[in-house]
């Protein structure tokens, strides 16, 4: 029996504990175990080019040229301008693939701003729990995306007014298990 003063906390506490147990059970496999064969009848494909575990470092102030490849095509829908006074600009990134693929992505696209070829903001932190993504050719999936409007330089000042280039990155981990990153952009945005 729960005490009346504690009853309001019982359901949230049980839900948190259940979420931790489910997450732990999903992470408990031994890395040396071979993956179980996929017995589903649906068609799937490996993302081209060959996946790599080396993700592009998005370092504040570093020069940025978007890598090519990745196998997924990203297109962004963001406002053309935004006031510098806001903490972030919100939009969406459409993810598309020329072939059927199945795997896991982060809940949101990683969106960042570049000015004069240098990274001006870094992607906002997000929940590390991924979500299942099953893409079929010409059937895109939309992910939310937010870009910080605060400089990633020391002090975290609001961005200086001007034109920036917005980019998005989606890290896709196919069912085969090796992450692949894809970039979209540049999409110009005026910070006023």
Write the layout of secondary structure elements.
Layout: H1 7-26, E1 73-77, E2 81-82, E3 88-96, E4 101-105, E5 109-115, E6 118-119, E7 131-135, E8 141-148, E9 162-174, E10 180-191
Parallel strand pairs: 2-10, 5-8
Antiparallel strand pairs: 1-3, 3-8, 4-7, 4-9, 5-6, 5-9, 9-10
Task: Walk me through what this model shows.
It is a single chain. The protein is mostly beta strands and 192 residues long. The protein has one domain (44-191): Immunoglobulin-like, CATH 2.60.40. 10% of the residues lie in helices and 35% in strands. Strands 1, 2, 3, 4, 5, 6, 7, 8, 9 and 10 form a ten-stranded mixed sheet that branches.
Q: Characterize the biggest β-sheet.
A: 10 strands, mixed
**Share of residues in strands:** 35-45%
The amount of helix comes to 10-25%
> What is the ordering of alpha helices and beta strands?
HEEEEEEEEEE
Could you tell me how far the N terminus lies from the C terminus, measured between alpha carbons in angstroms?
A: 58 Å
The total tally of domains equals: 1
Which parts are unreliable, with pLDDT below 50 for 5 consecutive residues or more? 1-51
Query: Could you say which overall geometry the principal axes of the C-alpha atoms support?
Result: globular
Q: What's the CATH architecture name?
A: Sandwich
By secondary-structure content and strand pairing, the structural class works out as mainly beta
CATH class: Mainly Beta
- What is the CATH topology assignment? Immunoglobulin-like
What gyration radius follows from the Cα positions, in whole Å? 20 Å
Helical element count? 1
Q: Tell me the number of strands.
A: 10
**Multimeric state:** single chain
């Amino acid at each position: 029996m729960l005490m009346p003063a504690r009853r309001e906390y019982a359901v949230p506490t049980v839900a948190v504990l259940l979420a931790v147990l489910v997450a732990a059970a999903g992470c408990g496999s031994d890395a040396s175990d071979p993956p179980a064969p996929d017995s589903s009848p649906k068609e799937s494909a490996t993302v081209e080019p060959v996946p790599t575990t080396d993700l592009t470092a998005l370092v504040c102030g570093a020069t940025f040229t978007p890598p090519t490849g990745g196998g997924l095509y990203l297109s962004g829908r963001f406002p053309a301008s935004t006031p510098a006074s806001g903490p972030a600009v919100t939009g969406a990134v459409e993810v598309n693939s020329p072939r059927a693929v199945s795997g896991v992505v982060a809940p949101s696209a990683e969106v960042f701003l570049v000015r004069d070829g240098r990274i001006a903001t870094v992607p906002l932190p997000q929940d590390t729990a991924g979500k299942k993504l099953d893409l079929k050719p010409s059937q895109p999936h939309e992910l939310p995306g937010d870009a910080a409007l605060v400089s990633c330089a020391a002090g975290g000042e609001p961005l200086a007014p001007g034109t920036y280039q917005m980019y998005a990155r989606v890290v896709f981990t196919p069912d085969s298990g090796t992450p692949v990153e894809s970039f979209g952009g540049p999409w110009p945005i005026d910070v006023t």
